[in-house]
């Protein structure tokens, strides 16, 4: 990095990030920037456009699966013996769909479909994210930061970028997600025609540090005339009530039009040690059940959470294109979906010995957990498989490991205010879609923007929040723009 003002340009990038809310909370009165790259990752325009034009089919598929309760129950039941959390989720789904007071909420599917662009196979799905599918606002912010650097610091930006980086791939994930949420929120508000502004409720975790990404979304909704409220499940437990025509009411606030869950994907979100009249987790899970029995837009419903699980992903990946048409896909749509789905296989008693004779980098072992820390790689796969109890087999799956090409030259990542040079940076591409009751909420089939997280190929955990990943954006290859 010969350019003499490199350090100054980097410092301004950090200040820009903090100024624009691209931050993680540290203490009650301090924050830090998340790790980010100083230049975008390149992608072939044809590959990105195909992803962008077809990702809505995954939203269509997942919605249909989430509405087929018999299929969900049959698919999830086998893993409940080895996964207590999914046993609880399935009971919640049964309570919602099989009781006297059925689900009456409006399903709002905000989904992030994560892909890796394999060097040989092309873009393949890594996982669905249907609950707490966040960081869309950060995805837009890092795109804007890269555009700022290209304009404000063209000399170091050009030096960092190299010859391949061309036109930036536009990203309006913050506006796209806000527009989709607003459409569902106003729909419920207009059904009731009551006074006042519509109200959006975000269910959050206690002591959450990824709050600025959430607040950016709230601010975008506030700009659309929507009131926003934040509560934990514990705060909702004795604060919710029922109004006329199954209107959901919150004490001190009034009617609620939309509930957006940024919590609920782990048992700890349902723990409240001060509730003594019944088991704490049961109390707070029933709070979530209660929400879905009201006329309110909800993301994620319990069924959406189940439908975006690794278990369902594995089953869908294993089906033929023809069998996928049962979920409302045309034959051509089902073939396109099959093109996106990666290879996944079930775990059984023979899996350990089978894996032992496969290349170490050919497969990844996954459980049903959300977020980082739920994948097993290399030699550890055999060890883990040997240690599994047979009733745990179906709660795990093997996925073919994807191998994206790293950047053609060294990349510069800023972490804790310092530049780190990484010569094997690879990226995960997350595309957001929004569907309301199965219908695209936006143009382009419901496509709402993207999130890029990049990491060294030597690192297994690539999350920005919980791993060694860095926020990144996309640019088309320069030769495609000439």
Automatic annotation (TrEMBL):
Gene3D superfamilies: 3.30.1490.50, 3.30.1490.80, ATP-grasp fold, B domain (3.30.470.20), Glutathione synthase, substrate-binding domain superfamily, eukaryotic (3.40.50.1760), Glutathione Synthetase, Chain A, domain 3 (1.10.1080.10). SUPFAM superfamilies: Glutathione synthetase ATP-binding domain-like, PreATP-grasp domain. One of its GO terms (cellular component) is cytosol. The keyword Magnesium applies. It is an enzyme of class 6 (ligase). Belongs to the eukaryotic GSH synthase family. Its EC number is 6.3.2.3. Pathway: Sulfur metabolism; glutathione biosynthesis; glutathione from L-cysteine and L-glutamate: step 2/2. InterPro entries: Glutathione_synthase (IPR005615), Glutathione_synthase_a-hlx (IPR014042), Glutathione_synthase_C_euk (IPR014709), Glutathione_synthase_N_euk (IPR014049), GSH-S_sub-bd_sf (IPR037013), GSH_synth_subst-bd (IPR004887), PreATP-grasp_dom_sf (IPR016185). Keywords: ATP-binding, Glutathione biosynthesis, Ligase, Magnesium, Metal-binding, Nucleotide-binding. PANTHER family: GLUTATHIONE SYNTHETASE. GO terms for molecular function: ATP binding; glutathione binding; glutathione synthase activity; metal ion binding. Residues 199-307 form the Glutathione synthase substrate-binding domain. The keyword Chaperone does not apply. This is glutathione synthase. Its cofactor is Mg(2+).
């Amino acid at each position: 990095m010969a350019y003499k003002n490199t350090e100054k340009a980097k410092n301004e990038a950090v200040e820009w990030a903090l100024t624009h809310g691209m931050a993680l909370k540290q203490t009650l009165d301090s924050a830090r920037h998340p790790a980010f790259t100083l230049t975008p990752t390149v992608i072939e325009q044809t590959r990105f456009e195909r992803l962008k034009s077809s990702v809505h089919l995954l939203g269509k598929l997942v919605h249909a699966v989430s509405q087929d309760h018999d299929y969900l129950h049959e698919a999830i039941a086998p893993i409940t013996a080895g996964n207590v959390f999914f046993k609880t989720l399935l009971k919640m789904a049964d309570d919602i769909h099989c009781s006297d007071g059925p689900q009456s909420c409006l399903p709002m599917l905000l989904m992030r479909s994560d892909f890796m662009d394999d060097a040989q196979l092309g873009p393949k799905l890594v996982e669905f994210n249907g609950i707490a599918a966040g960081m869309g606002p950060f995805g837009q912010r890092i795109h804007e930061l890269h555009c700022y650097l290209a304009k404000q610091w063209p000399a170091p930006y050009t030096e960092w970028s190299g010859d391949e980086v061309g036109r930036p791939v536009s990203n309006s994930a913050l506006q796209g997600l806000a527009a989709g949420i607003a459409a569902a929120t106003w729909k419920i508000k207009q059904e009731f025609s009551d006074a006042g502004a519509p109200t959006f409720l975000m269910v959050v975790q206690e002591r959450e540090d990824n709050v600025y990404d959430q607040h950016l979304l709230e601010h975008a909704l506030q700009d659309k005339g929507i009131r926003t409220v934040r509560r934990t499940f514990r705060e909702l437990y004795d604060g919710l009530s029922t109004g006329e025509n199954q209107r959901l009411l919150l004490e001190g606030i009034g009617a609620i039009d939309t509930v957006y869950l940024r919590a609920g994907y782990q048992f700890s979100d349902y723990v409240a040690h001060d509730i003594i009249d019944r088991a704490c987790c049961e109390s707070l899970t029933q709070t979530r059940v209660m929400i879905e029995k009201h006329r309110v837009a909800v993301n994620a419903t319990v069924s959406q959470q189940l439908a975006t699980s690794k278990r369902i992903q594995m089953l869908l990946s294993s089906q033929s294109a023809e069998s996928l048409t049962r979920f409302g896909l045309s034959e051509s749509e089902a073939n396109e979906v099959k093109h996106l789905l990666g290879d996944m296989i079930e775990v059984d008693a023979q899996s350990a010995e089978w894996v032992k004779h496969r290349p170490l980098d050919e497969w990844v072992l996954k459980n049903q957990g959300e977020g980082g820390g739920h994948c097993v790689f290399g030699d550890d796969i055999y060890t883990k498989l040997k240690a599994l109890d047979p009733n745990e087999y179906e709660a795990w799956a093997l996925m073919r490991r994807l191998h994206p090409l790293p950047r053609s030259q060294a990349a510069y990542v800023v972490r804790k205010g310092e530049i780190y040079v990484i010569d094997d940076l690879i990226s995960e591409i997350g595309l957001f879609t929004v569907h309301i009751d199965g219908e695209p909420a936006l143009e382009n089939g419901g496509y709402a923007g993207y999130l890029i997280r990049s990491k060294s190929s030597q690192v297994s955990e690539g999350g920005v929040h919980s791993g060694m990943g860095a926020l990144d954006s996309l640019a088309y290859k320069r030769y495609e723009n000439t």
